[in-house]
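Quick illustration, no need to memorize.
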Amino acid sequence: MNDQSIDQIVIVGGGTAGWMTAAALANAIRTGCTITLIESDEIGTVGVGEATIPPIRTFNEALGIAENDFVSATQGSFKLGIQFVNWGSLGNSYFHPFGTYGRNFDFLPLHQYWLAARARSEAPELQDLCMAWAAAKRGKFAPPSPEQRNVLSTFDYAYHFDAGLYARFLRRYAEERGVVRIEGKIGDVSLDGETGHVSHVTLEDGRRIEGQLFVDCSGFRGLLIEGALKTGYQDWRHWLPCDSAMAVPSARGEFTPYTRSTAHQAGWQWRIPLQHRTGNGHVYCSSFISDDEAAAVLMANLDSDALAEPRKLSFVTGRRNLFWNKNVVAVGLSGGFMEPLESTSIHLIQAAISKLIALFPDRSFD
């Protein structure tokens, strides 16, 4: 390490974003740096990000996490893609697979042959030429074949899992590698008068936590990136008008190896099957439907008994003007939010962490 090396990292906030960050940094930085995570059990997490896309497998593999251990600990299931219902028209559905539609034939993509067959009115549904859908519609899953000549190599997969259990799993992983967790609420954030960088945070009980690099995983509040540094936020609601969601767990019903997204009059509904329950939610625009009506639509379209009352989440789609401002990096909801139509919320956390590690600074923050 040189004189400018960072040796104190402070992560503000736990949940999925905080513990993914802590685990990845602990794995990447083996010596010479302390990693402290501050969180409070009194502050809840959003905790509905239960569907993922295939790069999550790369994240787990980089940490040396065995797939069976992960799936067991998080009550997870396997995901071959997303089924979209009623989006084109009522009764219409299509499948967005992880993987390809068939294999190239004579060096031409399969869809060229499919388009020619459709012109002759001889084409099947395009999704029926997809191995991921062939398995998914039958409720089947197996890992893809490593043999590229085998048609069973033409699909990929991700997971559904309980985000709270994933955070707990990664907490154990991170603490075993030296991450120190501090229980407490932050009462004040202090800035260096010369650089404007965050110098330390003070907990409500008076404890002072110093750091050189701070990672803001405090959720929508953006305690550091916005509360202290006034970074600013770009509101994207003119493009993405949904600003609310109702979420509710239900008893485990049909156990599908895919996520389902169903269009409604003023939004859409997710369905995510886990081992112990099904995750459900209704994302909607509050300008077109009331909260009570949105909750009623959700409850009327469950395929198993609800296990709780619907919980409302409010959000503003958009992003901070800067994800990295001075010595603060925003990861997760503190950096921005898009409705989870393509199951990208956890992926955006992963992408931010990957960039932080790839572009890891020294104390000059160049």
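The two ends are 17 Å apart (CA to CA).
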